[in-house]
Write a structure and sequence with these properties.
151 residues; alpha/beta; two-stranded antiparallel ribbon
Length: 151
């Protein structure tokens, strides 16, 4: 193997590890807890070999970190199409600045009249606190936010 290939592989591994470490919790941590609370099933394989993050009696739900809001739209609609259930997105807001992505998502859904329900959670959802310093631990439909108080 050439030195440049080895260096490239090492740099790729470092970048990938840094990207994963950038999140305090993994997406699947939010997914597992939320889906269990909703009495749903996680990682349900669709006929097209995609995986629905959470399938409940009513919704097929996609989980994504806030900056991936646009990807979540397509995935949630695909899962809805494949399952016949309503589309849903749980957007993970880790920082106060992530609210801008929630605003973008809600604006698109409203403007295009997309049949997608949105919930959002922040890192305090997994930490077991009602709110953290960002003050954005909520679950509910955008525009009709319900604060979740956990004890």
């Amino acid at each position: 193997m050439s030195k440049s290939l080895i260096v490239s592989l090492i740099l790729t591994a470092i970048v990938a590890a840094t990207a994963i470490a950038a999140h305090q919790y993994l997406e699947k941590d939010y997914q597992n807890r939320w889906c269990k609370e909703q009495k749903g099933r996680t990682e349900v394989i669709m006929e097209d070999r995609t995986r629905c993050d959470c399938l409940t009696d009513t919704y097929s739900v996609e989980f994504d970190f806030a900056n991936k809001w646009a990807e979540a739209v397509g995935q949630s609609l695909n899962y809805s199409f494949k399952t016949g259930k309503k589309a849903g997105i749980v957007l993970i807001l880790e920082e106060e600045k992530d609210k801008k992505y929630l605003d973008r998502l809600n604006a698109m859904i409203k403007e295009k009249k997309l049949p997608i329900k949105v919930w959002s959670v922040d890192k305090s959802y997994l930490a077991g606190k009602a709110e953290d310093k960002t003050g954005i631990c909520f679950i509910g439909t955008a525009g009709n936010r319900e604060v979740r108080n956990e004890k």
